[in-house]
Specification:
It is a single chain. The chain is α/β, with parallel strands linked by helices and 273 residues long. The protein is 38% helix and 9% strand. The chain is built from eleven helices and six strands.
């Protein structure tokens, strides 16, 4: 059965813009094309090397993607407001290029790409398909299982890698991350609780719900957990990926994506050079 290769669109676009080894400009040097060129080049390389027989689907964040989580976690992703969002200017051209390459993509208003990818992953696994999530966002670790891997620029992560590195199972990732915090999403975590303490608290596959009144909270450094219990659960809820997002009927076909044209070819086809 054809595997599914899911691309975190905004994350890849930002990585292309800020991390590409050289600036790519139009022939007249008036337009910076690094975002769209880098996006297409990195996606093509990843698909060719890691999933040439997979169906490729790109998912972008909706315009108001953070709204739901921000209602329960004040300040959620607020630290990104002052960031450099120059790459977004390339988004229309990226979408045009994806259409030209016959690559399906979606952007659902008020939905984060993470949740859409998690929904598509869960549905694919239930259908017996393997899945590769292409992103550097560690929240995708919670989706890992025998048929699901996470591909980053440096390596591929499997479920066993998470247990080896963090001493927890993928399904415990939201619990672990709520305890330790996630600076990228402006989730502070519990002060004084680092990776080692968090892993010890979650030993034997425990989740946060099992901690109240347990001997594991007797350590004085764990007392803040009790005082911030409501916040801790809200953080975990924000980190948990949803798997119930209605997906467009035509988004996933079950058919492998043909080898992608080069970035240069697509830019030429769209008269962007």
């Amino acid at each position: 059965m054809t595997g599914l290769f899911l691309v975190d669109g905004h994350q890849l676009l930002y990585r292309a813009w800020f991390g590409f080894p050289a600036r790519i400009t139009s022939r007249d040097k008036t337009r910076d094309l690094t975002g769209v060129f880098g996006f297409l080049a990195l996606m093509r390389k990843a698909h060719r090397l890691h999933a040439p027989d997979h169906e490729l689907v790109v998912v972008f964040d909706g315009e108001h993607a953070s709204a739901r989580r921000a209602t329960t976690v004040p300040g959620y992703k607020a630290n990104r407001a002052g960031a450099d969002h120059t790459p977004i200017a390339a988004l229309p051209d990226v979408k045009r290029a994806l259409d030209a390459a016959a690559v399906r993509w979606t952007e659902i208003d008020q939905m984060e790409a993470d949740d859409v990818i998690a929904t598509a992953t869960t549905s694919a696994v239930q259908a017996g398909r393997s899945v590769i999530c292409y992103s550097s966002d560690r929240d995708f670790y919670q989706l890992l299982r025998p048929t699901v891997t996470v591909l980053t620029p440096r390596r591929t992560f499997a479920a066993a890698d998470i247990h080896h590195r963090y001493r927890i199972h993928p399904c415990q990732w939201p619990d672990y991350r709520a305890l330790t915090g996630d600076l990228a999403d402006h989730i502070p975590g519990i002060r004084g609780i680092g990776p080692t303490t968090a892993a010890n608290l979650l030993t034997d596959g425990w989740h946060l719900d099992q901690l109240p009144n347990s001997p594991r909270l007797r350590n004085p450094r764990c007392h803040p957990i009790t005082h911030q219990w409501t916040e801790l659960l809200a953080w975990r809820d924000a980190i948990r990926l949803r798997t119930d997002i209605p997906l467009p009927d035509t988004l996933i076909t079950g058919q492998p994506t043909a080898p992608l044209p080069s970035a240069a070819h697509l830019l030429d086809q769209l008269h962007l050079w």
